[in-house]
Amino acid sequence: MASSYWGVNHGKLVFLIITFCFIIDSTSAEWLNHGGDRTNRRSAVGEVLISPRTINRLKLRWKFLAGFDITATPAVANGVVYFPSWNGNLYAVNALTGQLIWQQNLTRLTGLPVTRTTVNVTVSRSTPVVADDLLLVGIYGPAVVIAVRRLTGTLVWSTLLDPRPLALITQSGTVFFGGYYVGVSSLEELLPATQCCTFRGSLVKLNVRTGAIQWQTYTLPDNGGRLGGYSGAAIWGSSPAIDIARGFVYVGTGNLYLAPPEVLRCQAAQNNRTTPPTNPDQCFGEDVHFNSILAFDVDSGEIAWATQLGGYDVFYFTCLVPNNPDCPPGPNLDADFGEAPMLLTIFSNGRLRDIVVAVQKSGFAWALDRNTGHIVWVKKAGPGSLEGGGVWGAATDGKRVYTNIVNGNRVPFTLAPSNQTTTAGGWVALDANTGQILWTTADPSNDTAHGPVTIVNGLLFAGSVAPNGPLYAMDASTGKILWTFNTGATIYGGVSVSYGCVYVGHGYSISLAKFHPTWTSGTSLFAFCIDV
């Protein structure tokens, strides 16, 4: 029983209430993966204490010192918070007191090679996924998923999903009916032209108890492991959404790293045309699922439908050098889906309609029919860039869709529906039925907005990468900021919510952060709780 974890102050009424809630409801108020649950909505549906009326009573309860950056959304279950740090450790912490229950060093625990591309330890950057008595963790290179005991952190199994040296796991998985679903990504697009690229993105289903691969479906045609074929279309953001009624699992994919020579020649010819082509994607063949939203059959892994959104996009890091002859013919947008879609039901054309919604790094929000993949509505929520646009995770309460807009290029960003502009990032709310923009709020710190958002009882939580690490709570109906707390270091990750408490880590000073000298290193996980 979860109450065995509560260490101190049993006399406080709130502790008794929360313990009682654990007994009567083990999942509705917990946060089990990056998206919160299998719908990937980042919505605290079981939360009753936190609301716009009580936000002024949200106070810092504890601060756990991990010693280095924390960017993953924490998981919360049965009174325990689970999270990794970029120091290579995995932690389990008492949710009410912040007391350490256990920690495991991933290098020593797994014996895996260190993640040399970013740090000299084995790390995870994704949310641990709760699966009964197990915790499932993706490794940020090599592309391995491990299972540990939730009570002790001891290793149960370890499974390699892709043997390529730069393959890795950045997506948090989703558990459903004994299966664990997770995408595979790569850092191959960092390679020079002579070595890039052979990686193909894939979605994998593992047996939760044994780690056995039950199916693995690729997003691109087979290239035989040789240069010159299709590569890229990684699956790297947020967590897969699972539709029980249809038996579908939904994800989004990234850009192509490279394409076959005949495709590049075709695109170069299109670029030289004086009239637009009749079909903007006529250069591509079948089964090329980059910058796409896909629905997979949960049992077989077969692709039920795939919708490619945004057109031709071949990009790897050599394209960052202007006029580099090694860069493939453009456009080189890097317009990934850095998040999986969310499940929701809207009212459209006089009837209820089940849809998925995801926001792209291009800044476009897309709503697709869950049965067919047909576009229901599309709206540009804000400017796109190599970093976003929307990335890592939108949220929905069913009435509105909420997203961050990074605005990585610092271009004028109209705060629709007003005519005001900013060059910072911000947050946008759209009508879930139509895609109409309802409000836009700029980051008051005048910085970019990289982290995922979280919705809870009429409040939208989001952090800023500003050096002082502000965390904001906004009125979900207006975008007005109602509450702020400066954590002291860049916030790149997202908030989880459980039983009247908000959990978030801070600090981001490695990997992508190397391109942002103002981002700051952090040390801690914070718990903010309603003071009752």
What does the model show?
This protein has a single domain (2-530), classed as Quinoprotein alcohol dehydrogenase-like superfamily (Methanol Dehydrogenase, Chain A, 8 Propeller), CATH 2.140.10.10. The two termini are 24 Å apart. It is built from three helices and 37 strands. The strands form ten sheets. Strands 10, 11, 12, 13 and 14 form a five-stranded antiparallel beta sheet that branches. Strands 1-37-36-35 form a four-stranded antiparallel beta sheet, with no helix packed on it. The chain has 532 residues and is mostly beta strands.
Distance between the termini: 24 Å
Radius of gyration: 22 Å
Structural class: mainly beta
Q: In which range does the helix fraction lie? A: under 10%
Uncertain segments are: 1-26
The CATH architecture can be given as 8 Propeller
Principal-axis shape equals globular
User: What is the CATH C level class, in words?
Assistant: Mainly Beta
The CATH topology, please?
Methanol Dehydrogenase, Chain A
Whole-number mean pLDDT: 92
CATH superfamily: Quinoprotein alcohol dehydrogenase-like superfamily
Characterize the largest beta sheet: strand count, sense, and whether it forms a barrel: 5 strands, antiparallel
Domain count: 1
Helical stretch count? 3
Range of strand content = 35-45%
Q: Could you tell me the number of beta strands? A: 37
